[in-house]
């Protein structure tokens, strides 16, 4: 989550997301590097304590710190046709654990497993946003490009919906003609650029050790995806659901970050010099 990467300044990064000033960033990092779990952890004990000795709850130790598990129900997945897969002959062997069965020669996803993986992916996205990480939405389907770009803009993330250039991550210094900063998380709404060809960004992100979330259909290979989400990646209604859920998770993480930052400043408004 706190992976230290090289500092980049990329054309992918716009000025839509407001950053904290330098001293507030230092004291923010210090305050959360020293927080501990309370002696008796409770589901409602995720509040920020005061300087008098109330211990903080570590977001990483909380089962659902941002309450992302309540963002969707099984009916939402069913209504969005997330369970629809491709024909039996196109099945990738590594997707067999996520298959419930088939109907009329079309594969059907096990929505219980889909829900489990989707909640994990939403939780990771919220944590990255909470840590002020750079999140990049990636998709290469023309009919979904506008939706992905609009969703990324609404939640302060970034989007890449065009042809993914080779070396965009692994050779970014040459591609952008300067030092760049890579994203902390890539969310792939399509892990295939064609029916048989894997999206170039999947391998690029794996090479650079960038965490990835990917919607993997029955004909996809989930091995290079850090957090695969088995489900339909073709239906417009399913894409709308994915965009809606990831947007909500990211906004939850950003809102909690702002709330905790205000509480930290209220407790001790003086800057902290980490060089001492």
From TrEMBL:
<keyword id="KW-0687">Ribonucleoprotein</keyword>
<protein>
    <recommendedName>
        <fullName>Small ribosomal subunit protein uS2m</fullName>
    </recommendedName>
</protein>
<dbReference type="GO" id="GO:0005763">
    <property type="term" value="C:mitochondrial small ribosomal subunit"/>
</dbReference>
<comment type="function">
    <text>Required for mitoribosome formation and stability, and mitochondrial translation.</text>
</comment>
<dbReference type="GO" id="GO:0005743">
    <property type="term" value="C:mitochondrial inner membrane"/>
</dbReference>
<dbReference type="GO" id="GO:0006412">
    <property type="term" value="P:translation"/>
</dbReference>
<keyword id="KW-0496">Mitochondrion</keyword>
<keyword id="KW-0689">Ribosomal protein</keyword>
<dbReference type="InterPro" id="IPR023591">
    <property type="entry name" value="Ribosomal_uS2_flav_dom_sf"/>
</dbReference>
<dbReference type="GO" id="GO:0003735">
    <property type="term" value="F:structural constituent of ribosome"/>
</dbReference>
<dbReference type="Pfam" id="PF00318">
    <property type="entry name" value="Ribosomal_S2"/>
</dbReference>
<dbReference type="InterPro" id="IPR001865">
    <property type="entry name" value="Ribosomal_uS2"/>
</dbReference>
<comment type="similarity">
    <text>Belongs to the universal ribosomal protein uS2 family.</text>
</comment>
<dbReference type="InterPro" id="IPR005706">
    <property type="entry name" value="Ribosomal_uS2_bac/mit/plastid"/>
</dbReference>
């Amino acid at each position: 989550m706190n992976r230290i990467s090289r500092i980049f300044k990329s054309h992918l990064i716009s000025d839509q997301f407001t950053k904290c000033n330098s001293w507030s960033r230092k004291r923010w990092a210090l305050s959360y590097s020293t927080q501990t779990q309370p002696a008796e952890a409770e589901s409602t004990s995720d509040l920020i304590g005061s300087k008098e000795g109330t211990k903080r709850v570590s977001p990483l130790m909380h089962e659902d710190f941002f309450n992302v598990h309540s963002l969707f129900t099984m009916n939402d997945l069913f209504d969005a046709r997330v369970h629809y897969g491709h024909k039996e002959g196109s099945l990738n062997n590594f997707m067999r654990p996520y298959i419930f069965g088939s109907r009329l020669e079309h594969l059907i996803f096990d929505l219980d497993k889909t829900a489990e993986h989707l909640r994990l992916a939403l939780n990771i996205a919220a944590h990255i946003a909470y840590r002020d990480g750079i999140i990049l939405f990636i998709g290469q389907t023309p009919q979904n490009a506008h939706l992905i770009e609009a969703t990324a803009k609404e939640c302060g993330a970034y989007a890449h919906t065009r042809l993914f250039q080779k070396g965009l991550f692994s050779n970014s210094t040459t591609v952008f003609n300067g030092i760049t900063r890579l994203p902390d998380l890539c969310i792939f709404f399509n892990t295939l650029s064609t029916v048989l060809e894997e999206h170039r960004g999947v391998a690029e992100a794996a090479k650079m050790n960038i965490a990835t979330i990917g919607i993997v259909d029955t004909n996809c290979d989930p091995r290079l995806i850090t957090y695969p989400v088995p489900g339909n990646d073709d239906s417009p209604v399913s894409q709308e659901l994915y965009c809606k859920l990831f947007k909500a998770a990211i906004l939850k993480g950003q809102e909690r970050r702002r709330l905790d930052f205000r509480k930290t400043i209220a407790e001790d408004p003086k800057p902290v010099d980490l060089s001492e």
